[in-house]
Amino acid sequence: MKKNGNKIAALVLSAAMCVSLLAGCGKAPASTPASTPASTPASTASVSTPAVPDTPVETYSEAPMLAEKVKAGSLPKVEDRVPDKDNVFVERTDANGTPLEIGTYGGVINWVGVSGWGLSRPTAESIIRFNCDGTWYPNAVKAIEHNADSTVWTFHLREGMKWSDGDDFNADDITFWYYMCHLNNFDGKRTGWKMLLDQKVDDVQTFAKLDKVDEYTVTWTFTQPKYEADFILDGDFKWCWAPSHYLKDLVPNYEGYEYVENPYWPNPGERNEEAVLTAAKKLGIDGASTKDVGKASTYNWWNCPGLPTISAFTLPANSSIKDDLCVAERNAFFWKVDAAGNQLPYLDALHFNAVSDDAQKSLLIRDGSLDVLDIDVKDIASALADINATETKAVLKTFANVNWGSTQITFNYTTPDENYAKLFANPDFRQAMSICVDRNEVSQLLSEGFLEPGQCAPGIGNFGYDEEWTNKWTEYDVAKAKTLFEGCGLVMGKDGFYDFADGTDCQIVFYTYDSPESDTSAYAVLSKYFNAAGIKTAQKNLELTAYDTVIDNNEWNACLGPHTEIGGLGLNDRPAPFVPIAQAAEWYGEYGTYYATGGAKGVKPEGDMAKLVELYEQWKATESDSERETIALQIFEIHKKNLWSIAYLKNGNGYVIVNSKIHNYADTLVYADKYQNQNIVHYEVLFKAE
Amino acid sequence: MEALKNFFRKDLVQYIIKRILMFIPTLLLISILVFFVIQLPPGDYVSAHISALASEGELVDADYAASMRADYGLDLPVWQQYIKWVKDIIWTPTDTPYYRLYHSHHNWKFSFAYGRDVWSVINDRLGITIGVTAIIMLFQYLVSLPIAVYASTHQYSVGDYISSIIGFIGTAIPNFILAIVLMYLSYKWTGSANVGLFSQEMLLNGVHLYNFGEFLKRMIIPIIVIGTSGTCGIIRSVRAQMLDEVARQYVLTARAKGVSEGKIVMKYCFRAAMNPTVSGLGGVLSSLFSGSTVTAMVLNMQIQGPVLYKALQSQDMYLAGGIVMVQAILVVVGILLSDIALAFLDPRIRYSGGGR
Questions:
Q1: Distance from chain centroid for Cα A370
Q2: Residue of chain B with shortest Cα separation from A392
Q3: Are residues A574 and B57, on separate chains, in Cβ contact within 8 Å?
Q4: Which end of chain B is more exposed for a tag (fewer CB within 10 A), N or C?
């Protein structure tokens, strides 16, 4: 009964979420911000059609704990800490456009401990923010605009905005980041981030030119048009600032980190690794190398204790994300207010409680030690029943997942073994591997029927959804599968399994890796069908690092539950899951290496693989949203035709149990890397009340 | 004073010096084993780190990975990495960047995962690890010795069987299962799962007199789980030794001379029966340090075990190596102390050839 209840509840939630997403999730970004800046930005990118009346905020209020500090003289008054009404960000709606409640101050939210990205998800503030429907609006910057041919992009900053230590946030912090932290590769991302790359001159990469127009305006200039998909919407381009007043003595200047000539920041003179490490230690930043310090202070800055940020919650000095209890404190200089002028955030702090084992989480959410917890479908009903039987009550929130189906298998199309390479390249083989499995039975066995049978395709409500694609090669037909296998040149051997035509054994070894999210256990179910259809298989389960090493070394033939799955939210999230341009995903193997290394290594893509890259280049160079959408659909069509990865079940959503005292937490949201996953919750507007 | 002088007689002092000198090759051998075993899994910290980044959506190119390896010295042959590691731990000269930065002659290297000096990571939990281990050891002996004495003096009685069953339960049930069951029962009965040694309030404000009771409450489950796992061994060995002793001639003689039963048992039999237990103290210490890792993970105990586990998982080799080396040093010292205690317990024991 509990299982059925669980299933029904989850299905109802899924349906509700899908309906809400059908409104346009994954569309090319339109400009209908759910939350709007108080000012009307002079931006071609953010024309305001507010969901909530944009009444100007005249006066500000603040948390009692800050008011006390003001009274004691240790903090400037709120009007001096928050930008004026023309520059302040007024948070009026959540990521679905639903008006927010005006909250009350105080309290903390307890999370489980943090990972490398942990603090960024609930706290980081980006250049722009996305709504659940894929539209976006300027966030940390007041407005964004570009010239007619998209060669010059202008960022207007918020006058009066401050770092968490009270120092002014202005154009100097952008130029400092770009010339002293990024272009000298202190952050390790100079060539890794493509949005600021300009053209190549004589095979040498050039970069955008950044100019400070005035204290609150900067421009990025390119020699070629740089359209928004390749610039402001790039999944990597989340920030472009660093606290110059805090980090200026930390910037290296030696081989590998040479000073980059610029009109704003003078050459600091020779500053070797030891000088950098010494300066870093004075600021409480530990590191074994310049690379460590650079990454900690200018890339993963949200995890750097004591570093001034513009986030709602900051990590104090002498703390660490590795602490058993990591406390991110309220930023007294935060630049956002609610519709009533109350300075955000409402909460005093976010608490991150370290756990050493997953089982502890389910006990901690039950005994009220945690307020928020990601939870597996199978645990929802019992957890909610247990929690709601106590004084603490909890509710379930849904995160729509944008991946392309679960229980995926894929093959190594660049394997050096000719027999297997030829076999995998044949679409009939993939079709046979797909239809030889009874998806209904797999659904029952692996998910108690919760995840529906399906194919590796965009989910309903997502950009590119195609019913035909979702159902392609999903019928269960072993006889047809055998015919297809034989059509691929396989010959039935005496042992009841197919061999290659040259008489050699055909055995497909599926690599899997240990991870709570991986599909390791699915092998036992799937292998039954593969063996019944005459395909001899084996499983090799590895620790994740060993698995990645095998993939990187091109020493594999097939995998179940790829580490980097095919597909996702859309090309403007991150293109690597859609096109073979990086040394990343299993489905394109060494083809990606070829592109990533400029042809120096890897295997040159041909046919449809090459076509994907060709289309991607066109997509990047296209200004029009509709044209980009057309190209993206062409790329999707190639995926539909080839099905390089096969999924047996549709994707499931993510679920989060949330303390019912927490307000302003939207019921359904979208879980995507582009939206920084849980960042779309907007933790600064959450508050606790009965 | 005379007794102390008499106790630390020449042969014992010589033995202690010899044993301390033996520390050097022992620890060197352990360090070689530790370093090379940690390096056995394929890949290194950089590949583990890149995997973790890939899981979080960040892609790292091969050149960056290579430069990370160069920065951390992971591109050197393993034996060179080992020599550098040991050399720097033993002595880092004054004219090195490390000394200038940390003002220490012992460079335990850098923990990649923590982004900190390894020694500072180890030091964070060393005190609490030793403290918790000491409390659990104390519990083990306080519980098992009376039970063993009782069981041996009441052989095949109901009490003997009950005490044996209690002892066996602790050994027979895997620690991690017992830990989960006790945490669940704690949640059901008290509303708090008592996960971890410290409450959030303690983590924020520290352990003081006013919240020490709460700390002790949180120690109950770890003590039961880890403590009972070792009690059976102690109960059975002491019981068997005691049974041997009570059947000896001198016991019969003492009894015939009218010595009280309590004195016979406690002064003579028990003291003699303690020899194997005391000599096994070092082994118990070792098993508490290493054997409690899984339990510490399950109970979220803020001791060294979970840090070691995470370090091994992420191939943070200097941290893992550092923790194991510190544990090895403590165990080696523990064994020496148990040998000294043995000499104290039984004056007949000599540590050099020949008799007095």
A1: 24
A2: B191
A3: yes
A4: N
Would you state the structure tokens that stand for residue B295, as one six-digit string?
A: 């339990």
Please indicate whether, in this complex, the C-beta atoms of A288 and B71 are within 8 angstroms of each other: yes
B62 touches chain A (CB under 8 A): yes
Which residues pair with residue A155 across a beta bridge?
Answer: A144, A218
Domains of chain A listed by start with CATH number: 1-125+310-403+654-690 (3.40.190.10), 170-306 (no CATH), 406-649 (3.10.105.10)
Residue A671 DSSP class: E
Q: Is B64 an interface residue toward A (CB < 8 Å)?
A: yes
How far, in Å, CA of A643 to CA of A431, rounded? 9
**Three-state DSSP class for residue A167:** coil
- Per DSSP, the three-state class of A186 is coil
Per-residue CA distances from A138 to A128, A168, A678 (Å):
4, 19, 19
Nearest CA in chain B to A551: B51
The answer to whether the CB of A668 falls within 8 A of the CB of A400 is yes
3-state secondary structure of B208: coil
* Contacts with B110 from chain A: Cβ below 8 Å: 287-288, 292
For residue A321, the 8-state DSSP code is: T
CB A54 within 8 A of CB A38: yes
Is B181 an interface residue toward A (CB < 8 Å)?
no
Question: Which comes out higher in pLDDT, residue A392 or A91?
Answer: A91
pLDDT at A8 over 50: no
Q: What is the pLDDT of residue A15?
A: 44
Q: What is the pLDDT of residues A550-577, one digit of tens each?
A: 888 899 999 998 888 888 888 877 788 8
For A300, the token pair is: 């993963």
More confident residue, A62 or A582: A62
Give the predicted TM-score (pTM) of the model. Answer: 0.84
In the three-class reduction of DSSP (H, G, I as helix; E, B as strand; rest coil), residue A218 is classed as strand
Cis peptide before A345 (omega within 30 of 0): yes
Report, as an integer, the average pLDDT of A619-646: 93
Residue A549 has its nearest CB partner, among B43, B116, B192, at B43
Q: What does the pLDDT read at residue A200? A: 85
Nearest to A291 among B71, B109, B117 (CB): B71
What string of H, E and C letters represents the secondary structure of A95-158? CCCCECCCCCCCCEEEEECCCCCCCHHHHCCCCEEECCCCCEEECCCCEEEECCCCCEEEEECC
Structure ipTM: 0.83
DSSP assignment of B126-166: HHHHHHHHHHHHHHHHHHHHHHHHHHHHTTTSHHHHHHHHH
* pLDDT attached to residue A116: 61
Domain extents in chain B: 124-345
Percentage of chain A lying above the pLDDT 70 cut: 91
- CATH 3.30.420.40: does it fit domain B124-345? no
| Best of A295, A325, A350 to mutate (most B CBs within 10 Å, chain B) | A325
Taking the alpha carbons at both ends of chain A, their separation in whole angstroms is: 31
Does B71 contact chain A (CB < 8 Å)?
yes
The answer to whether the beta carbons of residues B138 and B152 sit under 8 Å apart is no
| Residues of chain B with C-beta less than 8 angstroms from the C-beta of A544 | 48, 51, 55
User: Nearest to residue A274, comparing CAs of B68, B96, B91, B114?
Assistant: B96
Q: Do B300 and A292 touch (CB under 8 A)?
A: no
**Residues sharing a CB contact under 8 Å with residue A527, sequence separation 6 or more, in sequence order:** A510, A537, A539
Distances (CA, A) of B44 to A314, A547, B112, B320: 32, 13, 11, 13
- Please indicate if any CB of chain A lies within 8 Å of the CB of B225: no
Nearest to B56 among A116, A355, A546 (CB): A116
User: Taking CA atoms, what residue in B is nearest to A304?
Assistant: B115
- Nearest C-alpha neighbor of B347 from the set B6, B2, B5: B6
Residue in B closest to A601 by C-alpha? B62
